[in-house]
Amino acid sequence: GTPKYSGMVEDCCCDYETVDNLNKEVLYPSLQELVKTPFFRYFKVKLWCDCPFWPDDGMCRLRDCSVCECSENEFPESFKNPDRLPLNDPVCQEGKPEAAVDRTLDNKAFRGWTEIDNPWTNDDETDNDEMTYVNLLLNPERYTGYTGPSARRIWDAVYSENCPKYLSQESCQEEKILYKLISGLHSSISVHIASDYLLDEATNMWGQNLTLMYDRVLQYPDRVRNLYFTFLFVLRAVTKAADYLEQAEYNTGSHNEDLKTQSFIKQLLYNSKLQAACPVPFDEAKLWRGQSGPELKQKIQHQFRNISALMDCVGCEKCRLWGKLQVLGLGTALKILFSENGQENLVQTLQLQRNEVIALMNLLNRLSESVKFVHEMGPTAERITEGH
Ligand code: FAD
Predict the structure, then answer these.
(1) pLDDT tens digits for 264-321?
(2) Which GO terms describe its biological process (predicted)?
(3) CA 155 vs CA 163, 299, 364, 365: distances in Å
(4) Which residue from 8, 64, 177, 221 puts its CA 20 to 30 A from 105's CA?
(5) 141 lines ligand 1 (CB under 6 A)
(6) Is 171 left (phi over 0), alpha (psi -120 to 50) or beta?
(7) How many whole angstroms from 147 Cα to the centroid of ligand 1?
(8) What are the backbone angles phi and psi of residue 245, rounded to the nearest 5°?
(9) What distance in Å separates the CA atoms of residue 382 and residue 16, rounded to the nearest whole number?
(10) What's the whole-model pTM score?
(11) CB under 8 Å to 324, separation ≥6 — which residues?
(12) Is 143 in the pocket of ligand 1 (CB under 6 A)?
């Protein structure tokens, strides 16, 4: 393990070792299965580069940035509209043969799910016109070659304008949390770049880049801590919404697959090991308590919405896809933990969209992968890098 990280995860009630063990034994294996199911592998997203801040930013032209949208035949039956017109221009991005664009939406696919806007995000989630489905399995989050000023200014804007790193004890708890969530997500993105890196362009050889992981994440212990914090925060949201998620419909038209999805969900939510070792991974009840609670919540919601809007400026499609998914996932976690109607009766008061649930679980899976990679490869990365 990483002995550097011992004791309790900040603001949490379980220690690093417990989190690593739980992740390895319970969370990681079931999440890996869950995200492969037809329900969880298609994400609805507006991929236009619609940047409100820097209108000059073009789309990324690098091959590895392109997103393969769903081809028709791999789209779950129930997502399709039987009366749909044939696609007149199924453009395959950057020559990937199975990548025809399917922009049709079918209400049946959203049976039992409400279409409501998430107050934490910038996109109007009820506006289906500009949305497209993407098969996440075809588009793993990994190195894309997106760097330089375009990437840099997004992160700069995220941190400087919307969640400044707290320098003193003055910042309130809630603002610290926003910073930690974003920093944890940033660590996770860097870990994915490091775990799946284009090592040799000429031979198209992909593999791990442990030096990169050290340089960007491991040498800053607070970035590792923030990754664990974000993981537990999202995990808490998922377990808090357990009853809601258990009762939700995972209907994709394929009965066997849907039963599997349901059973993976149960495995994850009602796991006795998880309940014994870390029943409340984050305690949200102590937040927004002060006098300025409601104002503060509005302010932080506004900041988070700005961060979400910044995702439209990410100049690389695949990065934009995962940026949007993960920010929506965080927004969904925030919505679950801080929804107006508080603690009780969440099953009755909470309303989640299908897409929010997909984003939430895929985000949790990404964070789980990052925690696992840091835990397993961290010591090696430190050894080879510090040895130089
Ligand atoms: P960056 O990662 O760009 O970091 C910029 C600055 O932020 C750092 O110098 C540091 O001061 C600070 N910082 C870095 N990490 C943290 C942290 N964890 N907590 C707090 N502060 C931090 N590239 C890909 O190859 N694949 C992707 O899928 C991908 N997705 C992206 C998604 C989004 C939303 C964005 C904005 C960028 C994405 N990128 C992706 C680009 C990638 O994140 C980096 O910006 C790029 O690789 C350049 O890295 P860098 O070393 O300059 O540092």
Answers:
(1) 999 999 888 988 888 888 888 877 777 777 888 888 888 899 999 999 888 788 888 9
(2) protein folding in endoplasmic reticulum
(3) 11, 20, 21, 22
(4) 64
(5) yes
(6) beta
(7) 8
(8) -65, -30
(9) 18
(10) 0.87
(11) 45, 46, 123, 308, 311
(12) yes
